[in-house]
Amino acid sequence: MVTSFYALRSFCKNYEKIENYEKAVNDTTQVWECHHRLELEKTGGVCDVTKQDLIDWGIYYDRPADELIFLTKAEHRKLHHAGKIVSKETRDLQSRAKKGKSHKVSDETRKKISIANTGKSHPAWNKGIPCTEDVKRKNRLAHLGKNCGKRWYTDGKVNVRALECPEGFRKGMTKEAKDE
Predict the structure, then answer these.
(1) Under 8 Å CB-to-CB from 127, ≥6 apart: which residues?
(2) Most exposed residue of 2, 5, 18, 140, measured as fewest CB within 10 angstroms of its CB?
(3) How does strand 158-162 pair with strand 151-154?
(4) Residues near 25 by Cβ (< 8 Å), separated by ≥ 6?
């Protein structure tokens, strides 16, 4: 599973040609991340090139597909943390620092976000990316039997959802009618 196709387009316009792309798209058991090969070329197994370094060098965005590779989240983490030893004291300090921290957003912050986003359209992350035949087949199978063939019928006063049209009803819904 690829984390974000939206972000992926900023790395490479032809992301379908990146090594391990097919594996990443078809694997639903783990998360895959796009990674720059420059970080893989470091010797000693420890990656000390940061995202900011790549941005500063002008080689982070709009790269050719052959400069990138898809790695699993575990492989990516291992690459960045290989050879780094964190003491027990440091782990304890990090643990204590996180305790009691809340990820909840305050009402004030929610209002600010709402105001900032008012009037903006937010298209779906996958807008413009066509589904593969395999994805269409999986969706079809996943939704098979979910709707049970039920439809809305109305007599002008009451809206009913049923398998077959009740006597005196017609297909559709009426706004003024009460739903049952």
Answers:
(1) none
(2) 140
(3) antiparallel
(4) 1, 2, 132
The H or E element that residue 171 is part of is: strand 170-171
Alpha-carbon distances, residue 112 vs 16, 109, 117 (angstroms): 38, 5, 9
- Is the pTM higher than 0.90? no
Instruction: Pull the structure tokens for residue 19.
Output: 């090594």
**Token output for 12:** 């490479």
Mapped onto helix, strand or coil, the DSSP state of residue 3 is coil
Q: Which amino acid is at 41?
A: E
Q: Which range among 41-45, 106-110, 163-167, 175-179 shows the weakest confidence by mean pLDDT?
A: 41-45
* 8 A C-beta contact, residue 170 and residue 154: yes
| DSSP for 12-25, written as a single string | -TTGGGSBTHHHHH
